[in-house]
Amino acid sequence: MSRPRLPRTGDSADAIVARLEQLALGDVDYRHGKTWSLVYWVDEEHHAVCEKAMTMFMDANALNPMAFKSLKRMEYEVVQMSAGILNAPDTAVGTMTTGGTESLLLAVKTYRDRARAKKPWIRNPNIVVPASIHVAFDKACHFFDVKKKVAPVLPDGQVDVAAMARLIDRNTIMMAASAPQYPWGTIDPIPELGRVAAKHKLPFHVDACFGGFMLPWLEGLGVEMPEWDFRVPGVSSVSADLHKYGYAPKGASVLVYRDMGLLRHQFFVVGGWAGGIYVSPSIPGTRSGGAIAGAWASLMRLGEEGFIRLAEGALETARALRVGISAIDGLALMGRPDATIVTWTSNDPAIDVYAVADVMQARDWPMDRQQNPPSIHLTANAVNRGQVEPYLADLREAVATVRANPSLRKEGEAAVYGLMAKIPLKGFVEREVLKVMEQMYSADGGEMDLTDKEQTGAVQQFVERHGDRIFGALDRLRVIRDKLRFRLRR
Question: Which CATH number belongs to the domain containing residue 153 in this structure?
Protein backbone atom coordinates (compact mmCIF):
# COMPACT_ATOMS: atom_id res chain seq x y z
CA MET A 1 0.00 0.00 0.00
CA SER A 2 1.50 3.33 -1.05
CA ARG A 3 1.65 6.20 1.41
CA PRO A 4 -1.22 8.73 1.05
CA ARG A 5 0.07 11.98 -0.42
CA LEU A 6 -1.11 15.51 0.10
CA PRO A 7 -2.95 16.54 -3.09
CA ARG A 8 -1.10 19.05 -5.27
CA THR A 9 -4.21 21.18 -5.51
CA GLY A 10 -7.09 21.21 -3.09
CA ASP A 11 -10.20 19.19 -3.87
CA SER A 12 -13.57 20.83 -4.35
CA ALA A 13 -15.99 20.99 -1.43
CA ASP A 14 -18.34 18.57 -3.20
CA ALA A 15 -15.55 16.06 -3.81
CA ILE A 16 -14.45 16.20 -0.18
CA VAL A 17 -17.99 15.66 1.12
CA ALA A 18 -18.50 12.77 -1.30
CA ARG A 19 -15.29 11.15 -0.08
CA LEU A 20 -16.32 11.59 3.56
CA GLU A 21 -19.68 10.00 2.85
CA GLN A 22 -17.92 7.07 1.21
CA LEU A 23 -15.59 6.62 4.18
CA ALA A 24 -18.54 6.61 6.58
CA LEU A 25 -20.31 3.76 4.77
CA GLY A 26 -18.46 1.16 6.83
CA ASP A 27 -19.21 2.77 10.19
CA VAL A 28 -21.77 1.46 12.67
CA ASP A 29 -25.38 2.61 12.30
CA TYR A 30 -25.92 4.66 15.45
CA ARG A 31 -28.68 6.91 14.08
CA HIS A 32 -31.15 4.01 14.00
CA GLY A 33 -30.27 2.52 17.39
CA LYS A 34 -28.16 -0.42 16.21
CA THR A 35 -25.27 0.38 18.53
CA TRP A 36 -25.18 -0.07 22.31
CA SER A 37 -22.17 2.11 23.08
CA LEU A 38 -19.88 4.89 21.78
CA VAL A 39 -22.56 7.27 20.45
CA TYR A 40 -25.37 9.03 22.33
CA TRP A 41 -27.75 10.08 19.59
CA VAL A 42 -30.80 12.28 20.13
CA ASP A 43 -32.13 13.25 16.70
CA GLU A 44 -31.22 15.22 13.58
CA GLU A 45 -32.49 18.50 15.02
CA HIS A 46 -30.32 18.25 18.11
CA HIS A 47 -27.38 17.22 15.97
CA ALA A 48 -27.87 20.28 13.75
CA VAL A 49 -27.91 22.67 16.72
CA CYS A 50 -24.70 21.21 18.19
CA GLU A 51 -23.09 21.12 14.75
CA LYS A 52 -23.87 24.80 14.22
CA ALA A 53 -22.44 25.72 17.62
CA MET A 54 -19.27 23.72 16.98
CA THR A 55 -18.84 25.26 13.55
CA MET A 56 -19.27 28.80 14.85
CA PHE A 57 -16.43 28.34 17.35
CA MET A 58 -14.27 25.67 15.71
CA ASP A 59 -11.43 28.16 15.13
CA ALA A 60 -11.64 29.68 18.61
CA ASN A 61 -9.05 28.66 21.19
CA ALA A 62 -9.77 28.44 24.91
CA LEU A 63 -6.03 28.60 25.65
CA ASN A 64 -6.48 32.35 26.16
CA PRO A 65 -9.72 33.14 28.02
CA MET A 66 -9.04 36.88 27.70
CA ALA A 67 -8.98 36.68 23.91
CA PHE A 68 -12.07 34.45 23.71
CA LYS A 69 -14.31 35.68 26.48
CA SER A 70 -17.22 33.92 24.82
CA LEU A 71 -15.62 30.54 25.47
CA LYS A 72 -14.79 31.42 29.05
CA ARG A 73 -18.41 32.42 29.62
CA MET A 74 -19.75 29.23 28.04
CA GLU A 75 -17.33 27.05 30.01
CA TYR A 76 -18.36 28.80 33.22
CA GLU A 77 -22.04 28.26 32.47
CA VAL A 78 -21.52 24.60 31.56
CA VAL A 79 -19.56 23.97 34.78
CA GLN A 80 -22.12 25.73 36.96
CA MET A 81 -25.14 24.12 35.30
CA SER A 82 -23.40 20.78 35.80
CA ALA A 83 -22.63 21.64 39.43
CA GLY A 84 -26.32 22.33 39.98
CA ILE A 85 -27.31 18.99 38.47
CA LEU A 86 -24.75 17.30 40.75
CA ASN A 87 -26.13 19.04 43.87
CA ALA A 88 -22.84 20.87 44.47
CA PRO A 89 -22.62 23.76 46.96
CA ASP A 90 -22.48 27.38 45.83
CA THR A 91 -18.70 27.30 46.31
CA ALA A 92 -18.30 24.66 43.59
CA VAL A 93 -15.86 25.33 40.75
CA GLY A 94 -14.37 23.32 37.93
CA THR A 95 -13.28 23.09 34.32
CA MET A 96 -14.31 21.39 31.14
CA THR A 97 -12.04 18.67 29.80
CA THR A 98 -11.75 16.68 26.58
CA GLY A 99 -13.43 13.62 28.07
CA GLY A 100 -13.66 11.25 30.99
CA THR A 101 -10.08 10.09 30.70
CA GLU A 102 -8.73 13.62 31.04
CA SER A 103 -11.11 14.29 33.93
CA LEU A 104 -9.82 11.26 35.82
CA LEU A 105 -6.20 12.02 34.97
CA LEU A 106 -6.69 15.51 36.36
CA ALA A 107 -8.35 14.25 39.54
CA VAL A 108 -5.32 12.07 40.31
CA LYS A 109 -2.89 14.84 39.34
CA THR A 110 -4.77 17.36 41.49
CA TYR A 111 -4.80 15.22 44.61
CA ARG A 112 -1.19 14.17 44.11
CA ASP A 113 -0.15 17.83 43.98
CA ARG A 114 -2.39 18.65 46.93
CA ALA A 115 -0.63 15.92 48.92
CA ARG A 116 2.75 17.31 47.87
CA ALA A 117 1.72 20.69 49.28
CA LYS A 118 0.07 19.45 52.47
CA LYS A 119 1.96 16.22 53.18
CA PRO A 120 5.45 16.64 51.68
CA TRP A 121 6.71 13.55 53.52
CA ILE A 122 4.72 11.31 51.16
CA ARG A 123 7.21 9.94 48.63
CA ASN A 124 5.25 6.96 47.33
CA PRO A 125 1.66 8.14 46.95
CA ASN A 126 -1.18 5.72 46.38
CA ILE A 127 -4.89 5.85 45.63
CA VAL A 128 -7.53 3.43 46.90
CA VAL A 129 -10.19 2.37 44.40
CA PRO A 130 -12.61 -0.48 43.59
CA ALA A 131 -11.55 -3.25 41.21
CA SER A 132 -14.34 -2.04 38.91
CA ILE A 133 -13.01 1.54 38.62
CA HIS A 134 -12.44 2.88 35.12
CA VAL A 135 -9.15 1.93 33.49
CA ALA A 136 -8.31 5.63 33.08
CA PHE A 137 -7.15 5.48 36.70
CA ASP A 138 -4.51 2.96 35.63
CA LYS A 139 -3.39 5.42 32.97
CA ALA A 140 -3.33 8.25 35.53
CA CYS A 141 -1.24 6.22 37.96
CA HIS A 142 1.14 5.29 35.14
CA PHE A 143 1.50 8.90 34.01
CA PHE A 144 1.83 10.48 37.46
CA ASP A 145 3.83 7.78 39.27
CA VAL A 146 1.10 6.87 41.74
CA LYS A 147 0.33 3.37 43.01
CA LYS A 148 -3.20 2.01 42.60
CA LYS A 149 -4.51 -0.09 45.50
CA VAL A 150 -7.55 -2.12 44.56
CA ALA A 151 -10.44 -3.34 46.71
CA PRO A 152 -12.62 -6.26 45.55
CA VAL A 153 -16.23 -5.86 44.50
CA LEU A 154 -19.15 -7.87 45.84
CA PRO A 155 -21.37 -10.09 43.65
CA ASP A 156 -23.73 -7.17 42.89
CA GLY A 157 -20.82 -5.04 41.63
CA GLN A 158 -20.53 -2.69 44.60
CA VAL A 159 -17.12 -2.31 46.17
CA ASP A 160 -16.42 -3.88 49.56
CA VAL A 161 -16.30 -0.77 51.78
CA ALA A 162 -14.44 -2.49 54.63
CA ALA A 163 -11.81 -3.73 52.17
CA MET A 164 -11.31 -0.21 50.84
CA ALA A 165 -10.89 1.13 54.35
CA ARG A 166 -8.24 -1.50 55.14
CA LEU A 167 -6.16 -0.45 52.13
CA ILE A 168 -5.73 3.13 53.34
CA ASP A 169 -2.30 3.95 54.78
CA ARG A 170 -0.14 7.01 55.48
CA ASN A 171 0.74 7.30 51.77
CA THR A 172 -2.84 7.35 50.51
CA ILE A 173 -3.65 10.63 48.76
CA MET A 174 -7.24 10.00 47.60
CA MET A 175 -10.13 7.58 47.30
CA ALA A 176 -12.35 7.12 44.27
CA ALA A 177 -15.48 5.19 43.35
CA SER A 178 -18.02 5.02 40.52
CA ALA A 179 -21.56 6.22 39.87
CA PRO A 180 -22.04 3.90 38.12
CA GLN A 181 -19.13 1.66 37.23
CA TYR A 182 -18.92 0.94 33.51
CA PRO A 183 -18.76 -2.88 33.33
CA TRP A 184 -22.05 -3.71 35.10
CA GLY A 185 -23.75 -0.36 35.74
CA THR A 186 -23.65 -0.60 39.55
CA ILE A 187 -23.32 2.50 41.75
CA ASP A 188 -20.77 2.08 44.52
CA PRO A 189 -21.94 2.76 48.13
CA ILE A 190 -20.90 6.41 48.02
CA PRO A 191 -22.36 7.46 51.44
CA GLU A 192 -20.42 4.75 53.28
CA LEU A 193 -17.25 5.52 51.34
CA GLY A 194 -17.74 9.22 52.03
CA ARG A 195 -17.71 8.51 55.75
CA VAL A 196 -14.48 6.53 55.37
CA ALA A 197 -12.91 9.41 53.43
CA ALA A 198 -14.01 11.94 56.04
CA LYS A 199 -12.64 9.79 58.86
CA HIS A 200 -9.22 9.63 57.20
CA LYS A 201 -9.39 13.24 55.94
CA LEU A 202 -8.90 12.11 52.35
CA PRO A 203 -10.20 13.64 49.13
CA PHE A 204 -12.88 11.43 47.61
CA HIS A 205 -13.58 11.56 43.87
CA VAL A 206 -16.75 10.14 42.34
CA ASP A 207 -16.36 9.05 38.74
CA ALA A 208 -19.81 9.85 37.37
CA CYS A 209 -18.52 10.21 33.83
CA PHE A 210 -21.14 7.66 32.82
CA GLY A 211 -23.97 8.62 35.14
CA GLY A 212 -23.59 12.31 35.87
CA PHE A 213 -26.11 13.38 33.24
CA MET A 214 -28.42 10.37 33.63
CA LEU A 215 -28.70 9.43 37.30
CA PRO A 216 -30.28 12.75 38.42
CA TRP A 217 -33.18 12.23 36.04
CA LEU A 218 -33.54 8.53 36.91
CA GLU A 219 -33.86 9.49 40.57
CA GLY A 220 -36.65 11.86 39.60
CA LEU A 221 -38.32 8.99 37.74
CA GLY A 222 -38.34 6.87 40.89
CA VAL A 223 -35.30 4.63 40.38
CA GLU A 224 -33.92 3.69 43.79
CA MET A 225 -30.21 4.29 44.26
CA PRO A 226 -27.82 5.43 46.96
CA GLU A 227 -26.90 9.10 47.12
CA TRP A 228 -23.82 9.47 44.97
CA ASP A 229 -23.04 13.16 44.36
CA PHE A 230 -22.17 16.27 46.41
CA ARG A 231 -25.06 15.54 48.79
CA VAL A 232 -22.61 13.12 50.40
CA PRO A 233 -20.44 15.30 52.70
CA GLY A 234 -17.24 13.33 52.06
CA VAL A 235 -17.35 13.80 48.28
CA SER A 236 -14.78 16.37 47.19
CA SER A 237 -15.08 16.14 43.38
CA VAL A 238 -17.23 14.61 40.66
CA SER A 239 -16.54 14.06 36.96
CA ALA A 240 -19.34 13.78 34.40
CA ASP A 241 -19.12 13.33 30.62
CA LEU A 242 -21.11 15.79 28.57
CA HIS A 243 -20.48 13.74 25.44
CA LYS A 244 -22.24 10.73 26.95
CA TYR A 245 -25.67 11.33 28.45
CA GLY A 246 -25.14 15.07 28.13
CA TYR A 247 -25.62 14.41 24.38
CA ALA A 248 -22.86 16.86 23.49
CA PRO A 249 -20.38 16.42 20.63
CA LYS A 250 -17.34 14.28 21.38
CA GLY A 251 -14.54 15.90 23.35
CA ALA A 252 -16.49 17.30 26.32
CA SER A 253 -16.49 16.37 29.99
CA VAL A 254 -16.68 18.36 33.20
CA LEU A 255 -14.72 18.07 36.44
CA VAL A 256 -16.36 19.80 39.43
CA TYR A 257 -14.69 20.39 42.81
CA ARG A 258 -16.35 21.36 46.06
CA ASP A 259 -14.31 24.57 46.27
CA MET A 260 -11.33 26.48 44.89
CA GLY A 261 -9.05 25.08 47.59
CA LEU A 262 -9.11 21.84 45.62
CA LEU A 263 -9.22 23.15 42.05
CA ARG A 264 -6.14 25.32 42.54
CA HIS A 265 -4.00 22.16 42.63
CA GLN A 266 -5.17 21.29 39.12
CA PHE A 267 -3.68 24.41 37.54
CA PHE A 268 -0.23 24.29 35.93
CA VAL A 269 1.97 27.41 35.91
CA VAL A 270 5.50 28.06 34.64
CA GLY A 271 6.85 31.56 35.09
CA GLY A 272 10.33 31.34 33.55
CA TRP A 273 9.61 30.24 29.99
CA ALA A 274 11.08 32.45 27.23
CA GLY A 275 7.66 32.61 25.59
CA GLY A 276 6.15 34.26 28.65
CA ILE A 277 4.28 33.13 31.71
CA TYR A 278 2.45 29.91 30.88
CA VAL A 279 -0.67 28.82 32.74
CA SER A 280 -3.04 25.99 31.88
CA PRO A 281 -6.20 24.96 33.74
CA SER A 282 -6.18 21.39 32.39
CA ILE A 283 -3.94 19.05 30.39
CA PRO A 284 -4.06 20.53 26.86
CA GLY A 285 -2.67 23.92 25.96
CA THR A 286 -4.87 24.71 23.00
CA ARG A 287 -8.47 23.77 23.79
CA SER A 288 -11.21 23.38 21.23
CA GLY A 289 -13.72 26.17 21.20
CA GLY A 290 -16.01 23.95 19.18
CA ALA A 291 -16.29 21.32 21.90
CA ILE A 292 -17.11 23.93 24.55
CA ALA A 293 -19.73 25.60 22.37
CA GLY A 294 -21.22 22.26 21.35
CA ALA A 295 -21.60 21.18 24.97
CA TRP A 296 -23.15 24.49 25.96
CA ALA A 297 -25.59 24.24 23.05
CA SER A 298 -26.58 20.68 24.02
CA LEU A 299 -27.46 21.68 27.58
CA MET A 300 -29.34 24.78 26.46
CA ARG A 301 -31.19 22.90 23.71
CA LEU A 302 -32.45 20.04 25.89
CA GLY A 303 -33.10 21.66 29.25
CA GLU A 304 -34.52 19.63 32.13
CA GLU A 305 -37.57 18.54 30.17
CA GLY A 306 -35.46 17.20 27.31
CA PHE A 307 -33.14 15.30 29.62
CA ILE A 308 -36.07 13.76 31.49
CA ARG A 309 -37.70 12.70 28.20
CA LEU A 310 -34.49 11.02 27.02
CA ALA A 311 -33.95 9.41 30.43
CA GLU A 312 -37.46 7.93 30.29
CA GLY A 313 -36.69 6.42 26.90
CA ALA A 314 -33.36 5.02 28.04
CA LEU A 315 -34.89 3.59 31.22
CA GLU A 316 -37.72 1.96 29.25
CA THR A 317 -35.14 0.45 26.88
CA ALA A 318 -32.96 -0.87 29.71
CA ARG A 319 -35.91 -2.42 31.52
CA ALA A 320 -37.15 -4.13 28.35
CA LEU A 321 -33.67 -5.53 27.72
CA ARG A 322 -33.41 -6.86 31.26
CA VAL A 323 -36.78 -8.58 31.06
CA GLY A 324 -36.02 -10.10 27.66
CA ILE A 325 -32.50 -11.27 28.49
CA SER A 326 -33.60 -12.78 31.82
CA ALA A 327 -36.07 -14.93 29.92
CA ILE A 328 -33.38 -16.51 27.71
CA ASP A 329 -32.26 -19.89 29.03
CA GLY A 330 -28.50 -19.86 29.53
CA LEU A 331 -28.09 -16.11 30.06
CA ALA A 332 -28.01 -14.07 33.26
CA LEU A 333 -27.85 -10.39 34.11
CA MET A 334 -24.98 -8.85 36.06
CA GLY A 335 -24.88 -5.92 38.47
CA ARG A 336 -27.74 -3.85 39.85
CA PRO A 337 -30.42 -1.96 37.91
CA ASP A 338 -29.08 1.38 39.16
CA ALA A 339 -28.60 2.95 35.76
CA THR A 340 -29.21 2.40 32.05
CA ILE A 341 -26.42 -0.14 31.59
CA VAL A 342 -27.39 -3.74 30.91
CA THR A 343 -24.73 -6.45 31.13
CA TRP A 344 -25.36 -10.11 30.46
CA THR A 345 -23.29 -13.23 30.90
CA SER A 346 -23.79 -16.99 30.69
CA ASN A 347 -24.89 -19.23 33.55
CA ASP A 348 -24.66 -22.36 31.41
CA PRO A 349 -21.28 -23.97 30.56
CA ALA A 350 -22.69 -24.89 27.14
CA ILE A 351 -23.13 -21.22 26.24
CA ASP A 352 -19.88 -19.38 25.51
CA VAL A 353 -20.47 -15.63 25.74
CA TYR A 354 -17.89 -14.75 23.11
CA ALA A 355 -19.25 -17.31 20.67
CA VAL A 356 -22.72 -15.78 21.09
CA ALA A 357 -21.13 -12.39 20.45
CA ASP A 358 -19.61 -13.70 17.22
CA VAL A 359 -23.00 -14.89 15.99
CA MET A 360 -24.63 -11.58 16.95
CA GLN A 361 -21.88 -9.59 15.27
CA ALA A 362 -22.43 -11.57 12.07
CA ARG A 363 -26.03 -10.34 12.27
CA ASP A 364 -24.87 -6.71 12.32
CA TRP A 365 -24.99 -6.15 16.09
CA PRO A 366 -21.73 -4.54 17.32
CA MET A 367 -20.76 -6.25 20.58
CA ASP A 368 -18.85 -4.83 23.55
CA ARG A 369 -17.04 -7.84 25.00
CA GLN A 370 -15.89 -7.75 28.63
CA GLN A 371 -13.94 -10.13 30.85
CA ASN A 372 -13.67 -11.32 34.46
CA PRO A 373 -16.18 -12.82 33.91
CA PRO A 374 -16.90 -12.95 30.17
CA SER A 375 -19.87 -10.70 29.54
CA ILE A 376 -21.50 -8.31 27.08
CA HIS A 377 -22.11 -4.64 27.84
CA LEU A 378 -25.09 -2.65 26.55
CA THR A 379 -25.62 1.07 27.06
CA ALA A 380 -29.30 1.86 26.65
CA ASN A 381 -30.44 5.07 24.98
CA ALA A 382 -33.85 6.36 23.98
CA VAL A 383 -32.87 5.85 20.33
CA ASN A 384 -32.46 2.11 20.99
CA ARG A 385 -36.12 1.53 21.91
CA GLY A 386 -37.14 0.34 18.47
CA GLN A 387 -34.26 -2.15 18.33
CA VAL A 388 -34.97 -4.02 21.56
CA GLU A 389 -37.21 -6.71 20.08
CA PRO A 390 -35.01 -7.34 17.00
CA TYR A 391 -31.97 -7.57 19.28
CA LEU A 392 -33.68 -10.02 21.64
CA ALA A 393 -34.95 -12.15 18.76
CA ASP A 394 -31.47 -12.44 17.28
CA LEU A 395 -29.99 -13.07 20.73
CA ARG A 396 -32.35 -15.99 21.35
CA GLU A 397 -31.37 -17.51 18.00
CA ALA A 398 -27.65 -16.88 18.66
CA VAL A 399 -27.82 -18.70 22.00
CA ALA A 400 -29.59 -21.63 20.34
CA THR A 401 -26.94 -21.72 17.60
CA VAL A 402 -24.06 -21.80 20.10
CA ARG A 403 -25.81 -24.45 22.19
CA ALA A 404 -26.12 -26.63 19.11
CA ASN A 405 -22.53 -25.99 17.94
CA PRO A 406 -20.04 -26.19 20.86
CA SER A 407 -17.10 -25.85 18.48
CA LEU A 408 -17.97 -22.18 17.90
CA ARG A 409 -16.20 -21.15 21.08
CA LYS A 410 -12.87 -22.18 19.53
CA GLU A 411 -13.37 -20.31 16.28
CA GLY A 412 -13.10 -16.72 15.09
CA GLU A 413 -13.09 -13.92 17.65
CA ALA A 414 -14.56 -16.19 20.33
CA ALA A 415 -11.30 -18.15 20.49
CA VAL A 416 -9.11 -15.06 20.77
CA TYR A 417 -11.31 -13.20 23.24
CA GLY A 418 -11.99 -16.34 25.23
CA LEU A 419 -8.35 -17.24 25.65
CA MET A 420 -7.25 -13.66 26.33
CA ALA A 421 -9.94 -13.22 28.95
CA LYS A 422 -9.30 -16.51 30.73
CA ILE A 423 -5.61 -17.32 30.71
CA PRO A 424 -3.62 -16.05 33.69
CA LEU A 425 -0.70 -15.03 31.45
CA LYS A 426 -1.63 -11.34 31.31
CA GLY A 427 1.85 -10.37 30.17
CA PHE A 428 1.39 -12.59 27.13
CA VAL A 429 -2.02 -11.05 26.45
CA GLU A 430 -0.72 -7.50 26.73
CA ARG A 431 2.20 -8.23 24.41
CA GLU A 432 -0.13 -9.64 21.77
CA VAL A 433 -2.52 -6.69 22.09
CA LEU A 434 0.43 -4.36 21.60
CA LYS A 435 1.26 -6.22 18.42
CA VAL A 436 -2.31 -5.63 17.24
CA MET A 437 -1.94 -1.91 18.00
CA GLU A 438 1.37 -1.77 16.17
CA GLN A 439 -0.30 -3.24 13.12
CA MET A 440 -3.27 -0.87 13.29
CA TYR A 441 -1.00 2.18 13.56
CA SER A 442 1.68 0.95 11.17
CA ALA A 443 3.02 3.02 8.28
CA ASP A 444 0.68 1.27 5.85
CA GLY A 445 -2.41 2.04 7.95
CA GLY A 446 -3.27 -1.64 8.33
CA GLU A 447 -6.62 -2.83 9.60
CA MET A 448 -6.96 -5.77 11.95
CA ASP A 449 -9.15 -8.81 11.50
CA LEU A 450 -9.24 -11.02 14.57
CA THR A 451 -10.27 -13.99 12.41
CA ASP A 452 -7.11 -13.65 10.30
CA LYS A 453 -4.53 -16.08 11.69
CA GLU A 454 -1.63 -14.28 10.05
CA GLN A 455 -2.58 -11.02 11.78
CA THR A 456 -3.41 -12.42 15.22
CA GLY A 457 -0.24 -14.50 15.12
CA ALA A 458 0.78 -16.08 18.39
CA VAL A 459 -2.62 -15.74 20.03
CA GLN A 460 -4.39 -17.75 17.36
CA GLN A 461 -1.59 -20.34 17.23
CA PHE A 462 -1.67 -20.67 21.00
CA VAL A 463 -5.42 -21.30 20.85
CA GLU A 464 -5.04 -23.99 18.21
CA ARG A 465 -2.22 -25.79 19.98
CA HIS A 466 -3.37 -25.59 23.57
CA GLY A 467 -7.02 -24.53 23.47
CA ASP A 468 -8.58 -27.91 24.23
CA ARG A 469 -6.26 -28.51 27.18
CA ILE A 470 -6.69 -25.00 28.59
CA PHE A 471 -10.47 -24.87 28.21
CA GLY A 472 -10.80 -28.37 29.68
CA ALA A 473 -8.65 -27.44 32.67
CA LEU A 474 -10.59 -24.24 33.19
CA ASP A 475 -13.88 -26.12 33.11
CA ARG A 476 -12.56 -28.54 35.75
CA LEU A 477 -11.36 -25.64 37.90
CA ARG A 478 -14.77 -24.01 37.68
CA VAL A 479 -16.41 -27.24 38.89
CA ILE A 480 -14.00 -27.41 41.84
CA ARG A 481 -14.60 -23.72 42.61
CA ASP A 482 -18.37 -24.16 42.59
CA LYS A 483 -18.14 -27.18 44.91
CA LEU A 484 -15.96 -25.23 47.35
CA ARG A 485 -18.34 -22.28 47.33
CA PHE A 486 -21.27 -24.62 48.02
CA ARG A 487 -19.46 -26.19 50.98
CA LEU A 488 -18.48 -22.80 52.39
CA ARG A 489 -22.08 -21.63 52.18
CA ARG A 490 -23.14 -24.71 54.16
Answer: 3.40.640.10
